Every structure is written in structure tokens, then in C-alpha cells.
Amino acid sequence: MMERLESWKLALERLRSGQSADWAEAGRLVAEIVRMSTDTMLRQAAEQALPVLRQAVDNDDHSVTVAGQRRVGVILDVIHDLTAPRFGRRNALPKKLSNEERARRTLGLPLAVQLTCEDINQAYRRAAKGMHPDQGGSAQAFIDLAAARDVLIHPGAHKDA
């Protein structure tokens, strides 16, 4: 798949760098990407570009040409993202959240902001309205909200997991 991406990238860059683009060739190439790509983002970008590229064939309208060039650029951006080397540890698990970070996420609070008790209670009330069992929420979700509020109001009382 990687060599196919590279060949598509080279062909699209060649088409884009030419003086006058061969829109029929670009349309064929993009149709091939739609048919053969396994990546959802690339396939969507190509599907969205296809009508514009077909319209650009034998069309002297400058706005259609610019739109075609822009669509080819979007496809190239997606291909560049797919072919760019990845750095870092492969298959590394995400960093485990602390109890406080988990509680903030549960209540929908920002991670890096100093919170007052009033901020925490307002967030709890806002979240509890939809999570309460009488309002169609689950009992466990409501209990989790209360536990998250307690962790944030009394941070020293709870050990990190």
C-alpha cells in the first residue's frame, strides 16, 4: 500500500506542477484512489475532488481550475500525512490519567485550570441533570459523577490509582 501511495503522490505532484493541468488524467488518477484506497480520509478527499476535476475537463473557467488545484492539494496533504515518517514509541499505550484528571474529564472541566469549590459544584450539577436516574441516566454514571466531585473537592483524601 505504501508504494501505491508514493506513486499517487508523485503523479499528483507532477500534474499539479505542470503549466496546464491535464484534468482528464487527474480525474482518472483520483477515481483510482477512490476505488483502491483503504484509508477513509484519503477516500473521502478523493470522492469530494472527483466532481470538481471532471468539471474542470475542457473548461476555461478560472474558478473551476483553481477549485481543481485546491482539491488536488487537499488529496496531496492527506497522502503526505499518510506517508510521513512516524517518530516515538510504536504501539505505546497512552499515559494513564491520575484520579484528579479522570474526575475533571468526567465533569467536563479543563485539566490545567485552578478550580474553586463553586466551579466544581456547578460542573457537577450541570452534568448530574442529564445523568440522574430519574432523568433517564444510569445509576452507575450518577455515582461516578458524585465520586468525581468528591475527588476534586477533597484531593488529598483519594490516592492515585
TrEMBL record:
Species this protein is from: Bradyrhizobium neotropicale
Gene3D superfamilies reported in the protein's UniProt record: DnaJ domain (1.10.287.110)
Ranges in coiled-coil conformation: none
Domain J, first and last residues per copy: 102-161
Protein name: Molecular chaperone DnaJ
Domain of life: Bacteria
Annotated TM spans: none
